[in-house]
Specification:
Elements (H helix, E strand, L loop, with lengths): L3 E4 L5 H16 L14 H6 L4 E6 L2 E11 L2 E9 L8 H15 L4 E6 L4 H8 L4 E12 L11 E2 L5 H18 L6 H9 L3 E6 L6 E6 L10 E9 L5 H19 L3 E7 L3 H9 L3 E11 L12 E3 L3
Parallel strand pairs: 4-5, 10-11
Antiparallel strand pairs: 1-2, 2-3, 3-4, 5-12, 6-11, 6-12, 7-8, 8-9, 9-10, 10-13
Helix pairs in contact: 7-8
């Protein structure tokens, strides 16, 4: 088939969300589509970067959606969803083409996606566009059913004035640039603040030792009753593992202050020391996905990197 692909707007969100829920609930065997991603919202991505939101239409009806995100030199897409009645008809390939163009336009040097490792169909599709399966990614969670073992000083982006926020973003960009050249989370930090989807927290006094972009509350990407760590990273140094552990404790303190009972986060198992830190902190693996990369390089999925990210 040949659907018409266009950029979506805020007004398209309801139809796009319905396609995402019905497509993934069918894939995962969830009987009620409303139970998929219950309480979470992707509207913030529509508002944060409208240029990266694409939809496919047939006879004026939305039949597919794909969301592209760029973090400076790094880009990823997803969720990519096609209405169950239109799957297997080439719609997904059509939705990938504008994303590839967007990445080229923005000079993305490393791009990727999260998919199901058991799905040969998905992996074959993405390989057509140059993505190669690289590393398992653990989607993890921790229930906050006991008192914290240790308190840690937490600084909040929302508590700073404009000039201080600008200085923090510069420091955060320097931290992520050390992890991967050009990696930049400023857009995510600003979106969480402007759309009131949670907060960005950080640790360190004389220097920025780490930061975490935390979603919680109505309108965020966090499911009901939970906090979702969209991205987190510790400074590259000899004791990054210690800083990462402190950052995890800061995230837990933030979740408790927000009144939620669970934390969700995703981490590449290629960052094996960071993965071990999360296990030691009480996180459990809910399920595994696989990151596919273009070009076929490790990017910042390296053992020396202590970072949380989730390309779903």
């Amino acid at each position: 088939m040949s659907a018409t692909v266009r950029q979506l707007t805020k007004d398209d969100y309801g139809a796009a969300e319905h396609i995402i829920k019905t497509s993934f609930s069918q894939k995962l065997g969830i009987p009620d589509p409303d139970l998929f991603f219950s309480g979470g919202s992707l509207l913030g991505r529509f508002l944060m970067d409208p240029e990266g939101v694409f939809g496919a239409e047939e006879n004026g009806e939305l039949v597919g959606v794909n969301l592209a995100t760029t973090w400076g030199s790094v880009g990823y897409f997803g969720p990519l969803a096609v209405s169950p009645s239109h799957q297997g008809q080439g719609v997904a390939q059509q939705l990938l083409m504008p994303v590839m163009s967007l990445f080229r336009k923005r000079n993305v040097s490393h791009s990727g996606l999260f998919t199901f490792p058991e799905s040969a169909q998905h992996i074959h599709l993405y390989r057509k566009f140059g993505f190669m399966p690289r590393f398992l990614t653990a989607i993890m969670s921790k229930n906050l059913d006991s008192a914290p073992s240790k308190e840690v000083r937490v600084w909040r982006y929302s508590g700073f004035k404009d000039v201080e926020q600008s200085d923090f973003r510069d420091s955060a960009r320097e931290l992520t640039n050390d992890i991967y050249p050009g990696l930049d989370l400023q857009k995510e930090i600003c979106a969480v603040e402007e759309l009131e989807m949670g907060d960005t927290i950080f640790i360190g006094s004389d220097a920025l030792d780490g930061f975490a972009i935390c979603h919680y509350g109505e309108g965020s990407e966090a499911k009901s009753g939970s906090m979702y760590i969209k991205f987190a990273a510790a400074r590259m140094c000899a004791n990054s593992n210690v800083l990462f552990n402190s950052l995890l404790m800061a995230c837990e303190s933030t979740a408790r202050a927000a009144g939620v009972g669970k934390i969700a986060a995703g981490i590449s198992t290629a960052r094996d020391a960071g993965f071990d830190c999360m296990l030691s902190a009480g996180f459990k693996t809910d399920y595994l996905g696989v990151y596919m990369h273009k070009p076929n390089e490790q990017g910042f999925c390296r053992p020396d990197v202590f970072a949380i990210d989730d390309w779903r």
